[in-house]
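FORM 12-B: Structure-to-Sequence Request
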């Protein structure tokens, strides 16, 4: 029996829901390029990949606010300034996802689940307009549900996206799995009452995701099968 089925008493889950950034794809190089473009338009120095990595995970507006503040804390950034910066960020980010890479282990894991008829969803805080194009460009295949950061009125750590998909799939919490890379993913899964696996290679604001208490931590999705 593999690690995935061990989480479900030897059975297959009915529904597997995935985070996107830091879990399925390493998107930070393109996100950082768009952030740095937005900063350059304001005569500001680049933030760079390492800092942007720690700022991803709460959606694009918070990412841009953190970049303007130069820190995780962004209370001092004004609303109008942030909205204008978000427009510039969106324009830069829409054009190019060429540096975004699928993590090793993702393709075989998705293929394995699809062969067995497991329902699949992506639930990300990334704005919805970018999600389907990136899934398609990177050859990640069809997902039964895609929830972006602006699809519903709330985003992760709120469990609404997970609950919405579970209802649509007719999947009970004890037959559903969420896989993510950050605190928001673990919190959303816990609030939805579903098992949560964390990947240790993603983004968690500079902290090890193991500290967030997932049910299982893996270094590749291939380790689950
Ligand atoms: O855009 C973000 O904040 C990242 O989103 P995700 O990790 O929920 O995919
Ligand atoms: Mg993530």
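FORM 12-B RESPONSE
SEQUENCE OUT:
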């Amino acid at each position: 029996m593999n690690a995935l089925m061990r989480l479900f008493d030897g059975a297959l889950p009915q529904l597997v829901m995935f985070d996107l950034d830091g879990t399925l794809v390493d998107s930070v190089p393109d996100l950082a390029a768009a952030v740095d473009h937005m900063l350059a338009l304001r005569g500001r120095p680049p933030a760079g990949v390492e800092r942007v990595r720690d700022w991803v995970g709460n959606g694009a507006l918070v990412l841009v606010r953190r970049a303007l503040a130069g820190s995780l804390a962004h209370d001092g950034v004004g609303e109008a300034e942030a909205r204008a910066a978000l427009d510039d960020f969106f324009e830069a980010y829409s054009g190019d996802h060429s540096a975004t890479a699928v993590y090793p282990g993702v393709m075989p894991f998705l293929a394995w689940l699809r062969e067995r008829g497991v329902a699949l969803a992506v639930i990300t805080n990334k704005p919805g307009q970018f999600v389907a194009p990136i899934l398609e460009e990177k050859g990640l295949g069809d997902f039964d549900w895609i929830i972006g950061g602006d699809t519903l009125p709330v985003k992760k750590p709120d469990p609404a996206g997970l609950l919405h998909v579970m209802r649509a799939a007719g999947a009970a919490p004890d037959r559903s799995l969420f896989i993510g890379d950050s605190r928001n993913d673990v919190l959303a899964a816990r609030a939805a009452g579903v098992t949560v696996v964390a990947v240790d290679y993603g983004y968690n604001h500079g902290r090890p995701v193991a500290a967030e208490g997932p049910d299982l931590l893996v270094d590749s999705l291939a380790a689950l099968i």
